[in-house]
Every structure is written in C-alpha cells, then in structure tokens.
C-alpha cells in the first residue's frame, strides 16, 4: 500500500520550540492547490481566543463568508489543542478541538476529542492545523514532527473504515513495534461519505493491547466534511514525549495541582463514580432511578429492563478491567474503557474479534434505551460500527429513536423503509439501518440526513402531522439532542436550547443541581447557572483539557464549600495550571471572562451565518413535557400535582388531552421567561444578540465582530 502512495508535495520546516504552551505558529494546508505554509499565531489570538476552540473559530471566521456551505472548498477543518494540551502531570490534558461549518446545522461546529493527535501536533511544532480546499483524489497528510516535514500523498488503495485504516497507517508509518506509540492517525469511515453525521476518529496506540484505539470528535458531521475534501487520513509522528515539552512558566504549580488530584482519584474514584472501572457509563442506572434516562425517543425516563444494560453488566461481562486506560499520558482517571475480543455478529466484519471503545454513557443511552434496546451485545456492536463507519453515536441513537416512533405511529411503513421493521427494541433493524448508511443504500440514505431533514420529508412526502413531527423530532439548530431527558429540569432545557452549536450537554449539565438538589430555584438562579457553567466548560476547550477530572471526582470536603456544584478546589487547580503553563496571573473570575469572549464570538459567528437568534433557541416540546396521552398518563400523578400546585388548575374530571394543553402552555411560558433571564445575564438583547456595550466590556469588540452586530441590531 505504501508503494502505491504518490508524493504530491512536501514542505520542510524548522522544528522550533514551544514557549509557555505555545509554538506561536499554525500549519495551513490547501488541498486544492496543495499549498502548505506556516502562519503566525499573533498576540491578539492568544489574548482573545486563547487556543483550541478559540483558534478554530477565529481561523474559520476568516476563511468563510455568510454564504459558505459545508461542502464549499473554502470551508475549513481546524484542529487545535491549546496551551495546556500535552502536559503529563495533570489528568485530562490531551484534548484537542475540531471546528468546521457543520453539514447538519450550517453553523460553526466544535467537537472535543482525546487521543494523541493534538499533543503530537503541538510537539511537532504547530498550535493548530488548518485544512482548506478539496483534493482531486483521496490523500493522506503526513506530519513528521521529528524530521520537520509535511507531505501530501495520494493514497489509492487503503480501506476507509476507521479501525482498519488506523491500524494500517500506524503500521505503515512506524519504523518498528516500539515506534507505533509515536503515531497518531485521524480517519473518518465509509458512512461519512453518504450521510451528514460523519465523525472523526483520533487514534492512540495502546501498547498493552497492541492495537490502535480510537477516540471520537463525534458531533455535527465533521467527518462528512473530511471525506468531502477527499482526505483519507491525517498522520502525525512524534518521538520524545516528556513532561516539560510545553516549557511552562512554573512547573511547580503544575506538579502541585497534579499530585493533589492524582491522590483524590486513587482514594475516591471507586466510591464516587468508578470511572476507572466503567468510564462514563457509570450513570446508566442513576439516570434511570431519577427518571432521566431517555427511553423510546425521550417519551420516558426509565424502563423495567434497564438493569440488563446497567454499568455492573458491562463491568462484569464485557469491559476489560485492571488496565490503565488513559487516552493521554498521565491521566489517572483512566476512563477510556474498552471491551476486548468482542466478536461481531453482523456486517462486513462479522466473525472478527475487535476492541470496542466503551460504551460511554451516551452510547448506552442513545443506542440502547432511547431505541428500546436493552441488549448489551447489540449496544456494543452498534457502538463499534458507528465508530468504524464514522457515524456520530448520539445523532444515530436519537434519529433512530425518532424513526422508530414514526414507524410505530404509522407515518412510516415497510414500503418506505425498504422492509426494515423499525419498531422500538428491534436491534437487528437498527444495525441494518447502520450498515445501509455505510453502503449509501436504502432508507439509510434518508436517515443519514438527520432529524431536521427527515421531519421536512415526512411532512411533505408522507403526510405526517407537522405539529406532531415538530414536537417529537429531538433536534435543535439541526443537531440531534444528546442523551438526557430534560422534561423536569427547566435549567437543563435551557442547557440544551441556549447552546451555540445545538443541544449537546458539554455546555451545561444542570439536571441534578436543578431537579434533584433544588439548588437553583428562581429564574435568576437558573440564569446565573446558565451563564457560569457554559463559560466554565468552554474554558476546557480553549486550553486543551477534558472536563471529567473537574467534576467526576471531587474532594472529600467539597460538600462543605459555599458552591459545591462548582468544585471550587478544582477550579483553583485550573487557575494554577493556566498560570503555571502560560505565566499569566488570572484568577477564577478572569477564567470566566476568557471564555465569555470566545462564547460571544461564536454566537455572533452564528448570527453572521444566518442563525443564532431567539427563534433558533426554541426546543421541541418533548424536551419540555408530555406530547402524547401515553406520556402524560405514565406520570399522571406527577403532572396532575403540578397542574394543581404550580398552575392553579384543577385536573379532576378533565380529559388527558385538556390537561396536556394546559400543562404545555405553562411550560412553554416558563421556558420563554428563562430565555429572557439568561439573555439579560449574558448581556444580550431579548432577540438573543450580544450588545455592543457587553462586547466592549469583555474585550470582544473587534471591528469585524461589531460590524455583524450592528447589521442585526440596526
């Protein structure tokens, strides 16, 4: 295969040196004309955009205009780590962020990912990788961070699916078995070529398993853009990882924070979240207990069969135990769990024994309960094929659940689905749908367009009731909801609806604060939480950090602090990490301001692209309350009590349809009041536009940004 590669162009560069977390340059590649060049990272970029997601959004802003579509050559894919990315002393420091214009939303999309690529890219001399244009044929981009070379190679033979291609390229570009750990590969997969849901797989070589494992930048169709540009893979090679490669300003600050957290993880993880045994899937049964586990397209929040896919099932029967499963060096949280030697029962790899990454909670909930599938082996098989085909597991689970409800409601039938009996619980049909996406065939082509486009099709072509379809189609801004049921948490409804990129929980996960602990009872309390937590979580994506070490482990005395939900001791850790790496002198307030600048910039970027206003922050009613009689009556006592106590409406003797209508009016009014409160707290107009005064206050008053705001405020 390597002999079949034809070198199209090569670029040589001086290796340079990282200073206080920055290489101070980025790598630009245009695939249309095969330009490869170095671009300076300016002081303004570091001040206002920091790194990671911030750099990605800034480069994307300058590459596109308001008319750019996802498949236009000028659209870019940007990968950037951030100044803390790559340190080995603090858990969760290997993240990179990927940005592009999304095929699903038409807006800038960001997705965070682990694996070795982000740190290796930085150590190879680059703060960011900027990819533009389209190649004529499939290409591989190879960065040798020790030799100082970048090559574009035509790659005609290799297969595309992620798990196969990552193994092949790791073998191809390594000089020996020992050298494989110095290789990281970015791939998509066959389904990314036929759907809008494509993801990117970032590899890291697991020396214990002797396999290239995959982590995913999953959301928003970034892998679809990748394959549209005819990129088969990115490969980076770097040998010589050490703890001081960032040339940090104060190594002692970093070491102190790291040692403290390592001790907490060692002592407390097994009694708190068991991340080192099962990863994020530790909360499956917890979500079920609190009526928060999405079931049957978010109709319900629990199910009698959840015990079949509870975390203990995966721990005892499937997930390999006793391995330090970090996706970057030094991460003792070790949550990148895997099911080894899993034998596939369907598809092109039937009979193969593979390593499955996970399942994460989102995968178990989306591929499992939300589709009514309570078979752990079916979930693992769906998980594996989504990854290798490059399909976002969250979008796939949510859109499949939507299709299943439409099928059971009679909107779809076997003639439309090509014979697939897409009832809730039909794992065989779900897998068949996924295989169709990979092949670009049948109903898989329709489903692969996502919920928003299916809603339009089902109304226009199949006569579906528009109001019903709008209510049950769990997408917003074009992106499918992630896997939490927000019906009883107004704050979490806002946590989904008031995001920049669409309903993804990485901005705000407030269910327990709001619904379980009642820590944010008023609109103002919720608005404050919907200001602070999205800004704090944004900060991780600016610096190259994973959020899990922040709140999936907490100090023993955390409950005694004034603000336990924020984990204040860990917030101080991040302040120390930032100052220790960059030499800044920020405090916890400045940390939030750094994120505010980028967060508001992304909002204005959305506005520039024709979105990002109040009407775009609406959410489907199923995210707020019961759509159907079945839903209401499954929680009738709860809903009747709410009507009586909160609305002042006597439900006795009223039909379920009448009660649904009254409850809906109340809940929609609550959501609108929440929007008003959040916009006010964020410094936005009631139409959702950041004010010029607020942009000046936070230091995001760049002329090109102000120009967009003026055009929309008038």
From TrEMBL:
Stored InterPro entries: Ald_Fedxn_OxRdtase_dom2, Ald_Fedxn_OxRdtase_dom3, Ald_Fedxn_OxRdtase_N, Ald_Fedxn_OxRdtase_N_sf, OxRdtase_Ald_Fedxn_C, Tungsten_al_ferr_oxy-like_C, W-dependent_AOR
Keywords: 4Fe-4S, Iron, Iron-sulfur, Metal-binding, Oxidoreductase
Top-level division of the source organism's lineage: Bacteria
SMART domains: AFOR_N
Pfam families on file: AFOR_C (PF01314), AFOR_N (PF02730)
GO molecular function: 4 iron, 4 sulfur cluster binding; electron transfer activity; metal ion binding; oxidoreductase activity, acting on the aldehyde or oxo group of donors, iron-sulfur protein as acceptor
Domain Aldehyde ferredoxin oxidoreductase N-terminal: 22-240
UniProt record similarity statement: Belongs to the AOR/FOR family.
Entry-linked PANTHER family: ALDEHYDE FERREDOXIN OXIDOREDUCTASE, TUNGSTEN-CONTAINING GLYCERALDEHYDE-3-PHOSPHATE:FERREDOXIN OXIDOREDUCTASE
Protein name: Aldehyde:ferredoxin oxidoreductase
Native source species: Geosporobacter ferrireducens
């Amino acid at each position: 295969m390597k002999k079949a590669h034809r070198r199209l162009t090569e670029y040589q560069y001086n290796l340079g040196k990282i200073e206080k977390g920055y290489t101070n340059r980025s790598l630009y590649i245009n695939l249309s004309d095969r330009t490869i060049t170095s671009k300076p990272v300016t002081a303004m970029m570091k001040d206002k955009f920091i790194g990671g997601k911030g750099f990605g959004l800034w480069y994307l802003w300058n590459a596109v205009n308001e008319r750019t579509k996802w498949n236009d050559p000028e659209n870019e894919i940007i990968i950037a780590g951030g100044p803390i990315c790559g340190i080995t002393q603090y858990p969760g420091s290997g993240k990179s962020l990927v940005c592009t214009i999304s095929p699903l939303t038409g807006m800038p999309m960001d997705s965070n990912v682990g694996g070795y690529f982000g740190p290796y890219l930085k150590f190879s001399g680059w703060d960011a990788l900027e990819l533009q244009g389209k190649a004529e044929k499939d290409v591989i981009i190879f960065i040798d961070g020790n030799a100082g070379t970048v090559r574009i190679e035509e790659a005609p033979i290799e297969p595309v699916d992620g798990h196969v291609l990552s193994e092949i390229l790791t073998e191809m570009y390594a000089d020996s078995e020992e050298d494989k750990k110095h290789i990281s590969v970015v791939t998509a997969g066959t389904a990314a070529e036929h759907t809008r849901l494509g993801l990117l797989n970032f590899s890291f070589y697991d020396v214990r398993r002797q396999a290239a494992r995959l982590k995913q930048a999953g959301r928003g169709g970034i892998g679809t853009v990748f394959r549209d540009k005819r990129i088969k893979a990115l490969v980076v090679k770097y040998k010589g990882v050490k703890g001081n490669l960032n040339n940090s300003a104060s190594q002692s600050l970093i070491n102190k924070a790291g040692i403290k957290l390592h001790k907490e993880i060692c002592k407390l993880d097994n009694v708190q979240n068991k991340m080192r045994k099962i990863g994020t899937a530790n909360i499956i049964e917890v979500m079920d207990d609190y009526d928060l586990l999405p079931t049957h397209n978010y109709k319900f929040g629990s199910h009698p069969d959840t015990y079949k896919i509870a975390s203990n099932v995966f721990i005892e029967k499937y997930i390999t135990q006793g391995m330090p499963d970090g996706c970057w060096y030094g991460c003792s949280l070790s949550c990148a769990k895997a099911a080894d030697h899993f034998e596939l029962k369907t598809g092109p790899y039937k009979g193969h024994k593979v390593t499955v990454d996970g399942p994460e909670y989102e995968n178990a909930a989306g591929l499992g309960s939300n589709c009514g599938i309570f078979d752990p082996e079916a979930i693992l098989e769906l998980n594996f094929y989504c990854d290798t085909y490059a399909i976002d597991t969250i979008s796939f689970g949510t859109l499949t659940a939507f299709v299943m409800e439409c099928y059971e409601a009679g909107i779809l039938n076997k003639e439309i689905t090509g014979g697939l009996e897409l009832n809730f619980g039909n794992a065989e049909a779900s897998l068949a749908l996924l295989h169709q996406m990979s092949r670009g065939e049948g109903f898989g082509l329709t489903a692969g367009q996502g919920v928003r486009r299916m809603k339009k099709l089902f109304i226009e072509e199949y006569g579906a009731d528009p109001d019903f379809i709008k209510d049950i189609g769990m997408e917003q801004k074009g992106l499918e909801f992630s896997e939490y049921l927000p019906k009883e948490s107004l704050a979490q409804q806002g946590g989904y609806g008031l995001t920049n990129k669409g309903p993804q929980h990485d901005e705000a996960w407030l269910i327990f604060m709001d619904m379980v602990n009642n820590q944010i009872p008023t609109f103002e309390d919720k608005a404050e939480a919907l200001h602070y937590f999205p800004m704090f979580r944004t900060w991780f994506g600016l610096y190259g950090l994973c959020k899990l070490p922040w709140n999936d482990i907490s100090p023993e005395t955390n409950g005694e602090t004034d603000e336990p939900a924020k984990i204040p001791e860990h917030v101080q850790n991040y302040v120390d990490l930032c100052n220790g790496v960059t030499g800044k002198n920020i405090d916890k307030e400045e940390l939030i301001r750094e994120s505010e600048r980028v967060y508001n910039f992304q909002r204005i970027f959305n506005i520039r692209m024709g979105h990002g206003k109040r009407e775009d922050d609406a959410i489907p009613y199923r995210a707020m309350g019961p759509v159907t009689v079945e839903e209401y009556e499954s929680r009738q006592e709860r809903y009747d009590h709410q009507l009586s106590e909160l609305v002042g409406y006597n439900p006795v003797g009223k039909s379920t349809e009448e009660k649904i209508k009254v409850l809906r009016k109340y809940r929609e009014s609550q959501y609108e009041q929440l929007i008003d409160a959040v916009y006010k707290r964020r410094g936005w107009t009631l139409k959702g536009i950041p004010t010029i005064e607020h942009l000046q206050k936070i230091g995001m008053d760049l002329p090109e940004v102000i120009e967009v705001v003026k055009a929309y405020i008038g």
